[in-house]
Amino acid sequence: MFETVIGLEVHVQLNTKTKLFCSCPTSFNHKQNTNTCPTCLALPGALPVLNKEVLHKAIMLGTAIDATVNKTSYFDRKSYFYPDSPSAYQITQLYTPVVEHGKLQIDFEDGSHKTIRINRAHIEADAGKNVHDGDISKVDLNRAGTPLLEIVSEPDMRSADEAILYLKKLHSIIRYLDIGDANMQEGSFRVDVNVSIRPKGDKKLYTRVEIKNINSFKFIQKAIELEVSRQSEAWEDGVYDKEIVQETRLFDQTKQETRSMRGKEEAADYRYFPEPDLLKAVVTDEMLERYSVIPELPDEKMARFVKDYGMNEYNASVLTSSVEMAHFFEAMMSENITAKNALTWLTTELLGRLKGELNISNSPVDAKKLGLLVRRIEDGTISGKAAKDVLDYLMENETDVDSVIDTLGLKQVSDSGAIEAICDTVIALNPDKVSEYKGGKDKLFAFFVGQVMKESKGSANPQSVNEMLKTKLG
Ligand code: ADP
Ligand code: MG
Ligand code: ZN
Questions:
Q1: Which residue puts its alpha carbon closest to atom 11 of ligand 1?
Q2: Beta sheet of 89-92, edge-to-edge order
Q3: Residue 25: DSSP 8-state
Q4: Strands 247-252 and 129-133
Q5: How far does residue 27's CA lie from ligand 3's centre (Å)?
Q6: How far is the CA of 75 from the centre of ligand 1 (A)?
Q7: Which residues of 28-57 are buried (b: 16+ CB within 10 A; e: fewer)?
Q8: Strand 209-214 and strand 247-252: pairing?
Q9: Mutation probe of ligand 1 site: the residue of 3, 8, 9, 249 with most atoms within 8 A of C-beta
Q10: Is-contact 190 37, C-beta < 8 A?
Q11: Which of 388, 382, 334 lies closest to 365, judged by CA?
Q12: How many angstroms separate the Cα of 262 from the Cα of each of 94, 213, 248?
């Protein structure tokens, strides 16, 4: 029997305002090759200067993964030629990275956990982009020199599922820290998967294959599964040594296969050497103190939701599944409403109405409005049923909760005088039912409530009606 061994390298694009070694903006929606300067174009004589914001974000990540943040780290030059890299080398950190020896806990459905060790996280510069247009390829250097943090795990994962749990956890941490937008489709969270197999019980590491740049969790899962079967079949067929070589493969989603892309370069091929144009990167005590105070992470938030709001783990995990969702919920809670109603109105009512292009981030109804809507139910202004109409209206119209309640005439009558008058009318109209009720036919109570609600055209507050009828009928 075989055991799967997986190690992951994740490139996270950091959301700094400017690039790693120059002051060009990092936004990509601009016209091609406009966010460039002599430094990121690698023109002779231009010198890089480290953007401190990158160190700040590295400290935040290091804190989140319980790692050592090196007070001094260094940059190295990795030589290779690609059309989208005008310098023909990449500035990275090989020998002393900014962050080392971290860990991340993954959680299984049965409630058990496993710790995945993180070898390092180092800073490096991104390349530009090759844009293929029919027979012509063009190079856009707007992205060249954008800061990346490459987060390298130890080969601690033993299945595709574990790899996905690790990636989702890391992804979520990046989003909670807000150090990158971690959009897989847009390439701001890029994953290289290293896969090998070995006979169960064997401790040594066998030949690994690296599958590059797969842009969804689903495809990563699939690519690992395919690669594991390819390697196990080769072993069983006695051709493992011949067929499984250290190389870079790519995942072809249409053909559902991994395919050799190029032989794996050895470190020597890159002719690494210390970057002569840059000073060492220094993390000062001040920086460390300031940036090691990080926002609440998903696991902590989840535990707090369970504790503070008495909700079950499942609901807490739904609410913390994305940072947007968690923040939305917390903003609703600042309207002083119960967690149970906030949960239902967010996850069932609002999410149920967010269709097509709409999502929690661009929802036409924000957390404040939804929170207030729930408060209007809780303070008896409107019924839950009426609130659904209000929400429908708010999805289509940019206005506020209270004016919609007025416009649609949905205010409940809680005024005891008005309710008493209706109750009196209903009692007067039904003398027979009143005596039957008084004679012990308790079920008739619902009849009276129904009549009063009908008489009020549904606007009476049911709770006030109940109370009033109880007093009147004894
Ligand atoms: P490189 O930068 O050349 O890809 P690294 O030594 O940085 O090489 O390792 C890359 C990744 O490969 C790490 O995540 C590591 O855990 C993983 N890895 C190393 N050996 C194996 C193996 N035999 N099987 C699976 N993953 C491995
Ligand atoms: Mg690699
Ligand atoms: Zn530049």
A1: 7
A2: 89-92, 76-79, 273-274
A3: B
A4: unpaired
A5: 12
A6: 21
A7: beeeeeebbeebbbbeeeeebebbebbbbb
A8: parallel
A9: 9
A10: no
A11: 388
A12: 22, 14, 5
Cα angle at 235 between 231 and 240, to 5 degrees? 80
Alpha-carbon distance of 469 to 446, in angstroms, equals: 10
CA distance 280 to 147: 16
> From the alpha carbon of 196, which atom of ligand 1 is closest?
24
Closest CA to 458 of 466, 450, 446: 450
φ/ψ of residue 460, rounded to 5: -70, 140
Give domain limits for the chain: 2-291, 298-408, 416-473
Helix-helix angle 298-309:160-177, to 10 degrees: 80
Ligand 1 binding pocket includes 121 (Cβ within 6 Å): no
Rounded CA-CA distance 384/472 in Å is 26
Find out whether 85 and 70 touch, Cβ atoms under 8 Å: no
Fold for domain 416-473?
Arc Repressor Mutant, subunit A (1.10.10)
Kindly state the tokens that stand for 80: 């290779």
Judged by its nearest atom, the ligand closest to the C-alpha of residue 36 is 3
Per-residue pLDDT of the chain (474 residues; tens, 9 = 90+): 899 999 999 999 999 999 999 999 997 778 999 999 999 999 999 999 999 999 999 999 999 999 999 999 999 999 988 899 999 999 999 999 999 999 999 999 888 999 999 999 999 999 999 999 899 999 999 999 999 999 999 999 999 999 999 999 999 999 999 999 999 999 999 999 999 999 999 999 999 999 998 889 999 999 999 999 999 999 999 999 999 999 999 998 888 888 888 776 666 788 999 999 999 999 999 999 999 999 999 999 999 999 999 999 999 999 999 999 999 999 999 999 999 999 999 999 999 999 999 999 999 999 999 999 999 999 989 989 899 999 999 999 999 999 999 988 888 877 778 889 899 999 999 999 999 998 889 899 999 999 988 888 778 888 888 889 998 887
CA–CA dist 287, 222 (Å, integer): 41
Residue 403 CB burial class (10 angstroms; 0-12, 13-18, ≥19): exposed
Which tokens go with 415? Answer: 């005024």
Helix (H) or strand (E) holding 114: strand 113-125
User: What is the Cα–Cα distance from 320 to 307, expressed in whole angstroms?
Assistant: 14
